[in-house]
Amino acid sequence: MFFLFFFQSCLVFLQVQPVGSLVAIRSNVKRIRHLKSAACDEDDWHRPIEGECNSGVPTGASPLWTYDLSKTSSVVIPSPNDWNLIIDVRSPSEFAEDHMPGAINIPVLTDFERHKVGTLYAQSPFEARKLGAGLVATNLGNALASGSILSKLPRTARILVYCWRGGERSNAAAHIFSRIGWHAARLEGGYKTYRAAVQKWLYNEQIMNRFNFALLQGPTGSYKSHILSTIRASGHQVLDLEVLAGHRGSTLGSVFSSKTSDGSTLSVVPQPSQKAFESKLFTQLWSMDTERVIFVESESARIGRLQIPRALHRKCIAADAGIFELSVPLSIRVKHLRKVYSVFETPAGSIDLKHRLQRLAPRRGKDAVQRWTSLVDRAMWSELVADLLENHYDAAYEDATRRDLRSISSSSEHQLSQRHYTINLGADDDISDEELEVAASNIVQRAQDNIHHCATHRAFA
Predict the structure, then answer these.
(1) Please, are residues 7 and 141 in contact by the beta-carbon 8 Å criterion?
(2) Which of 68, 311, 344, 372 could be joined to 353 by an S-S link, Cβ 3.0–4.6 Å?
(3) How confident is the model at residue 323 (pLDDT cuts 50, 70, 90)?
(4) Matching Gene3D superfamilies, A to Z (predicted)?
């Protein structure tokens, strides 16, 4: 009897479209992550939360719910705290491009199956639906197999299901889960609703103005990332844009995942999609306390191929808690950068480096690039790094700083000059961990004082 209603549920599964109308999506699949939370109390598991409404009562089982974010008073996106599982039933490549925080991927159709059904749909919608229903039944049956995440859920579990737009894919899965007896809800509007909420929030200047940022500035190699790590380790809020973007924000800024012992091969970690980057930004900022300082490294509006939302970028530049300029001698910066980018001093790395340097020709000229590649060939690494800093990176940093100042009003520029501080490091031709800790502590104290002063000024204004 179970398999009868299981298959019947899948007959309402999917309203497919011809392959030609499918959105182009990335094929790399991220590792599945899921949030573990305690099951609801026996008396509460069946009760709806704000935003839920009963969309039908399958015979002999739990009601089927619809969760509508527009009907909630304060929730921007579904909270993992309200659900034992948030299930994304889209294909693996759709999930890899971006997904809701805490969601796991249980696709009702794989990428290949979705393509196959879409191709058939162009010829016969009836045959496509028939094929799709069987595939959905098989895939959800496997997802419920012994040892799976679903098989371990108690009856009191709450499950939120979503697909691209809250249509047939999520409806089929939610219907089956409710027939089993779980509290299952389909997200109204699906992933599109979540994505719209993230964009509306991140690109809203009024919302971004709630945050208080302290900006760490300084040319390449001035230990900004190390200072941020030290500040985070002491329990303060840090928004590390380079980590979220999977890029160090320069021509040589790719993140490498691995290399062989002799340096003959290396692997570059691909950056996330723009959508996934914005999801990461949203998740971090949403969890941060607007009353406390957030420390952030100065970045251009673009990190690698990813764009920082304009409202967020402008607020970071405004730096209500202060701008802290790190000043480090060139010789120490060279030594530091050679450690950070040591991968380029390997056989495979040096080849990759020369390719990357070619990208600088339009800005710095062919003669400069030829000089740098010659230094690579001769393994004159310290000379190369110093030359790049003096004739490319420091100039690029100054240009970016001037661009940032032009993006704000003259009055704001005057206010920035009043809370601009220079932090000198490396007076003894080296920078110790202790010196970094002292600098981080001083930055935190000054930033907190600035915010306290601003709050006091506003209170008496």
Answers:
(1) no
(2) 344
(3) very high
(4) Rhodanese-like domain
DSSP 82: G
Evaluate whether 71 touches 2 at the Cβ level (below 8 Å): no
Q: If DSSP codes are grouped into helix, strand and coil, which group holds residue 428?
A: coil
Which domains are assigned to the chain? 2-197 (3.40.250.10), 207-460 (3.40.50)
Residue 237 structure tokens: 């809020």
State the pairing for strand pair 302-303/306-307.
antiparallel
Q: Is the pLDDT of residue 61 over 70?
A: no
Instruction: Compute the distance between CA of residue 163 and CA of residue 369 in angstroms, rounded to an integer.
Output: 49
Q: Are strands 64-67 and 52-54 parallel, antiparallel or unpaired?
A: antiparallel
3-class secondary structure, 229: helix
Q: Assign 266 to helix, strand or coil.
A: strand
Helix (H, G, I), strand (E, B) or coil at 80: helix
What is the distance between the alpha carbons of residues 155 and 71, in angstroms, rounded to a whole number? 27
Q: Are 284 and 244 in contact (CB under 8 A)?
A: yes
CA dist 204 and 201 (Å) reads 5
Using alpha carbons, select from 142, 141, 89, 91 the residue that is nearest to residue 116.
Answer: 91
CA distances from 19 to 122, 125, 136 (A): 8, 12, 18
CB within 8 Å of 314: residues ≥ 6 apart: 205, 208, 407, 408
Neighbours of 446 (CB within 10 A): 17
Q: In Å, how far are 247, 347, 378 from 261, measured between CA atoms? A: 23, 11, 21
CA atoms within 13 A on the CB side of 164: 19
The sheet that has 420-424: what strands, in order across it?
237-239, 293-297, 212-217, 323-327, 420-424
Residues 187 and 64: beta-carbon distance below 8 Å:
no
Q: Which two tokens stand for residue 269?
A: 């970690």
Rounded Cα–Cα distance for residues 178 and 61 (Å): 7
Condensed to tens digits (0 to 9), the pLDDT of residues 335-387 reads: 999 998 898 999 988 998 999 999 999 999 999 999 999 999 999 999 999 99
Query: Average pLDDT in the 174-180 region?
Result: 92
Residue 37 in this model has a pLDDT that exceeds 80: no
Quick: pLDDT tens for 83-118: 999 999 999 999 999 999 999 999 999 999 999 999
Which residues neighbour 146 within 8 Å (Cβ) at sequence distance 6 or greater?
none
Cα distances (Å, whole numbers) of residue 242 to 248, 296, 308, 318, 321 = 5, 10, 11, 19, 21
- Tell me the pLDDT tens digit for each residue of 235-284: 999 999 999 998 877 777 666 555 545 555 566 778 999 999 999 999 99
Mean per-residue pLDDT, 413-425: 77
Residue 432 has φ and ψ, to the nearest 5°, of -90, 165
Cα–Cα distance measured from residue 166 to residue 356, given in angstroms and rounded to the nearest whole number: 43
User: What does the alpha-carbon distance between residue 323 and residue 215 come to, in Å, rounded to a whole number?
Assistant: 5
